[in-house]
Amino acid sequence: MGMHAAMGPDLTMGRSWPLFLAMWVAMMVAMMFPAAVPMVLMYGRMKRNDPSSIALFTGSYIALWFAFGVVAYLLSAMVESAASGSEWVAMNWGRAGGVLLVLAGVYQLTPLKDICLRHCRTPLSFVMTRWRDGRGGAVRMGLAHGLFCMGCCWLLFLILIPLGVMNVAAMVAVALVVFAEKAEPHGRGIGLLAAVAMIGYGVAVAGHPSLLPTVA
User: Fold this and answer.
1) Can you give the pTM of this predicted structure?
2) Angle of helix 134-158 versus helix 111-121 axis, rounded to 10
3) DSSP secondary structure letters along 52-107
4) How many distinct structural domains can be found in the chain?
5) Would you give the DSSP letter of residue 8?
6) What distance in Å separates the CA atoms of residue 147 and residue 167, rounded to the nearest whole number?
7) Would the pLDDT of 73 be above 90?
8) How confident is residue 4, by pLDDT bands cut at 50, 70 and 90?
9) Is 136 inside a domain boundary?
10) What is the distance between the alpha carbons of residues 102 and 199, in angstroms, rounded to a whole number?
11) Within a domain: 5
12) How many secondary structure helices (H) and strands (E) does the chain include?
């Protein structure tokens, strides 16, 4: 049992939670920045480039992804802990990663994904329909935009846990899908192709967990 348990996942990469979250936020900013720029610029124009309002809008958006990072860390730590104490979990946790990939692909096809994506693709419409005045309004708008973005992308980012949080290839692939869906005219079609790829890969991983880069 000890040998198999030792072969369990290293999803937090041995990092303490503050360091993991710092890395997570840096990763989120790098991956989401290209897709978020149009919304931030639109909000800035409407606020006549007021620095404090733009900072509050952007900061509340980032804070939401920080909170998501807390959830990601807790899930990763729970899987590591379970794998270290159970031979069965250590040998089969990769199959759960395959299931997560399938779920992420299926979610791409749901009406909820489409609703959230529509709000993220049209900055002017979002600003006009959800405008709030004042600094408190900037925070509420940043959180609202963040929630729609999270509704679009939460499973895309959650699959980075089994793929490897610092897996550069996976990060680039997810970032490209996120950007294409939000910014490209045929982005929804790209998202559907990504769904097919995730479902196919997830099914393969469920049958052969060693296909995951995080499985030893």
Assistant:
1) 0.84
2) 130
3) HHHHHHHHHHHHHHHHHHHHHHHHHHHHHHHHHH-HHHHHHHHHHHHHHHHHHHHH
4) 1
5) S
6) 25
7) no
8) very low
9) yes
10) 4
11) no
12) 10, 0
